[in-house]
Amino acid sequence: MYWGLGYTNFSNITFFCLATLFGIFMAFNIGGNDVANSFGTSVGAGTLTIKEALVVAAVFEVSGAVIAGGEVTNTIRGGIVDLSGMTVEPIQFVFIMTSALLSAALWLMFATARGYPVSTTLRTPVQK
């Protein structure tokens, strides 16, 4: 939290904390949706305990968010959503991205609870 607040020059602290909670909520939902698929066989076979699987999953979930999070944001900002047609202040873009994060997290929670198939992985096409 301190590192992230330093990155934002300690502005909009309340909103930053709220966005962080939404991010944790999304990570929880991704974990509930995907980690069971990844570690179910390892835990079932006894090669990993549930605690070990959760630690490994947590390390790689956080690492993926930190390492690739900026690229995902750039893809959404430049490759999916075209903001050139309107004037958007930086804080408005933050509101838009936070709204998208919360809505995706809520949908993922709902879909996972109902057993709907949902993909949460970002796959890029293989270049030939």
Q: Note the main sheet.
A: none
Note the overall shape: globular
Low-confidence spans:
124-128
Evaluate the radius of gyration.
Answer: 17 Å
**How many strands appear in the DSSP assignment?**
0
Nearest-integer average pLDDT: 80
Roughly what fraction of the amino acids lie in strands? under 5%
Number of domains: 1
Notes on the protein architecture:
The protein has one domain (15-114). It has helices spanning 2-7, 13-45, 50-80, 90-114. The longest helix is centred in the first third of the chain and has 33 residues, at 13-45. The termini are far apart. It is mainly α.
Ordered list of secondary-structure elements with their pairings:
Layout: H1 2-7, H2 13-45, H3 50-80, H4 90-114
Helix pairs in contact: 2-3, 2-4
Keywords:
globular; 128 residues; mainly alpha
Quick take:
Helix content is about 75%, strand content about 0%. With about 130 residues, the chain is mostly helical. It starts with a helix and ends in a 14-residue tail after the last helix.
